[in-house]
């Protein structure tokens, strides 16, 4: 009986640790990066399509992990976007003409950059693909 309890405790611990690892892989990283899937990125882009854009030469050079320039104003994501992509619930956003910056709420750092290129599946052929077909 004692061995049965130990086996159950180990099984529960393994299941718990596995679910925590899966949640981390699908959500945020330790550095506050979101790592959204292409489908999630597409959902965010669609949800923010009607939002006004901002422009800043400082923000154009922003990379994941850098602070949002003070000249930019981040806004909370709309409820319909966070309902579609729950991992973005607490994040802010800045919509630019060619990309969307998702901002970590506590650090003010860029957690994800979404562009049209990063949210597509690449179903079209490239020039190198066409060259291989000759």
Layout of secondary structure:
Layout: H1 2-26, H2 38-47, H3 57-60, E1 75-76, H4 79-84, E2 92-95, E3 100-103, E4 110-114, H5 127-132
Antiparallel strand pairs: 1-2, 2-3, 3-4
How would you describe this protein?
- This protein has 134 residues and is of the alpha+beta class.
- It folds into 2 domains: 1-30; 32-122, Roll (Nuclear Transport Factor 2, Chain: A), CATH 3.10.450.160.
- Helix content is 38%, strand content 11%.
- It has helices at 2-26, 38-47, 57-60, 79-84, 127-132, and strands spanning 75-76, 92-95, 100-103, 110-114.
- β2 and β3 form a beta hairpin.
- The termini are far apart.
Which keywords apply here?
Nuclear Transport Factor 2, Chain: A, about 40% helix, 2 domains, about 130 residues, single chain, alpha+beta, four-stranded antiparallel sheet
Q: How large is the share of residues in beta strands? A: 5-15%
- The percent range for helix content is 25-40%
Query: What are the segments in which pLDDT stays under 50 over at least 5 consecutive residues?
Result: 13-30, 120-134
- Kindly report how far apart the N and C termini lie: 70 Å
Largest sheet: 4 strands, antiparallel
CATH homologous superfamily classification of the largest domain: inner membrane protein cigr
Evaluate the radius of gyration.
20 Å
- Total number of helices: 5
Average pLDDT works out at 74
Report strand order across the widest sheet: 1-2-3-4
Structural domain tally: 2
CATH architecture of the largest domain: Roll
**Succession of helices and strands:** HHHEHEEEH
């Amino acid at each position: 009986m004692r061995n049965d309890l130990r086996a159950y405790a180990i099984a529960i611990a393994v299941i718990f640790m596995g679910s925590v690892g899966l949640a981390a892989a699908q959500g945020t990283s330790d550095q506050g990066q979101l790592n959204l899937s292409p489908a999630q990125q597409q959902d965010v882009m669609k949800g923010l399509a009607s939002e006004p854009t901002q422009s800043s030469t400082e923000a154009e050079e922003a990379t994941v992990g850098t602070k949002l320039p003070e000249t930019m104003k981040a806004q909370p994501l709309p409820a319909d976007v966070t309902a579609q992509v729950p991992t973005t619930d607490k994040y802010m956003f800045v919509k630019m003409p060619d990309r969307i910056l998702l901002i970590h709420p506590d650090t003010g750092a860029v957690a994800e950059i979404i562009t049209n290129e990063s949210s597509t599946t690449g179903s079209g052929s490239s020039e190198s693909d066409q060259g291989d077909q000759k």
